[in-house]
Amino acid sequence: MMRLWLLFITLVFFAGWSPIANAAPAKVGFLVVAPDRGFLGNKELRSLVDEFKKSYPAALGLVGREYTGVEGEYAAYLTRAVQELKQAGATEIVAIPLFLSAADPVLTRAMPTLPAYAQGLPIRWAPPMVEDYLIRQVILDRVEALSQQPDQERLLLVGIGATDEASEKALKADVEKLLAYVARYKQFRETETVIYYDRAAEGAEAKNKEIKARVLAQIAKQGRTLVVPAFIGPRFDHSMSMTSWMGQELKSLNVAYREAELLPHPNALLWLKKTANRFTAVRPDEIGVVIMPHGSTQPWNDAAERTIEPLKTKYKIEMAYGMGDPGIIQDAVSQLEQRGVKRIVFARMYELERHMKPLTDYILGLADSPTLPGQPGGHGHDAAFPPQIRSAALFSTFGGYTENFPPIASVLCDRIAEVSKDPAKESVILLAHGSGTDEDNNHWLSVIKANIEWVKKDPRCASFKAIKAATVREDWPDVREKAVADVRKTIEEDGKTGRVLVIANRLYGSGPYKKMLNGLTYILNEKGVASPAITRWLEENIGKTATALAQPATPAQQVAQQ
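The structure assignment produced for this chain is given below.
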């Protein structure tokens, strides 16, 4: 399906492209191409697009099942919509298909003809609704409103609009994407997707009887069946609609069903805005920052805040303390959006670049899994799918303040020097949190060792007996015992020939180190690396990330980021 969509984009874009030499930056107008749903359904569409128009230059162009091209009656709606965009100053058009699937037969007929209405303006197409997780969340919401005991229920997602076996197969594949998303969060006894044929299609009556028989066979099985519409269907009035017809068909059966299709739903507006954001540049004041430190007690949080405070005069910043808490992240993102932000730099204020990246990338909609392939969840998390945020903003992320950032080594040398008396007679252990898997823990140790090489280049830290890297792997009991025992053994051995300095290689504080090392003789510096160096790390990476994020995504990125 994605290949089909990319082919459509390529054909339609180049069919409508015209060179503009030495032109001013394009002003993008958004043509929302939507199915003609009849009076009540079109009223919903207009209400949605009117809300969208409050933030972006946009117009609604309706196409119906009887669309026949530039000579047909629907040509007037598309022509009028393009004229509206030109009057608003648009010099380029992005068509947003308010269709679930690129395989929708109405959309496939309309797409190749759109350049004929463009009046010389370049045209690009955005991907259809199914490609964005915000729309998949709509179906999840519909399911959650009906489901009581998923393991005792069967789920049936119903699509519409097929005109032949090829379109039925393609539409079904896209509805199954919705089902796969639901399956991340709900494990049903059975699941199935069906696609009804357009009543005007050849052989539609026989096909639909066959599909209805399959639906009834599912419903007849023991247990509760959930039937959920997965379409944007006709809605002439409250009774003359596809969802109403389905309700009448299911009325006397043991079925959980509501007359709620994809629209209306708040995510539809978020999806339109998010799509528009992909194709437009933003002003600096439309870029915000969410910073996610681990967080702890107030002294720990205050130390983190001190490093961030100097940046608040330059950036709109919200904090999201925690280990990838979806609710806290959602609150921070929503606060920024209320302040006019359209793009967000998400800073993981953690030691390593990989820390919390899979989890938060998933929550932000940048990844399809909260864990790396073949790995369990990190830092105390299991592999369950957390909620994804609901936002129109675009995101880019970074993390890892101890990785490839030499100023941190200078801070570590500061911490060593603060407790050192006679370097030639002292051994130093840079002690860090550690990871659950050997692979991740070894990577963490390699980062500390790389910083040790930088530390040794500082004259203040060049003459110690030894500077070593260690972790206690504190959140994983099955490996923690040995890790702590190894650290204790090192302290005992090194303590026989001199003083041992333990430096908390953390942002602030020493966590459980005192308890873990109880009974040993050593000197602990538990200040951590919270310092102006962290401020510098944040500022450099926010600036670099924000600069890249300010520009419209390339066509390939626009597809990949869905």
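Interim note for the steering committee: The radius of gyration is 29 Å. Residues 165-185 form the longest helix (21 residues).
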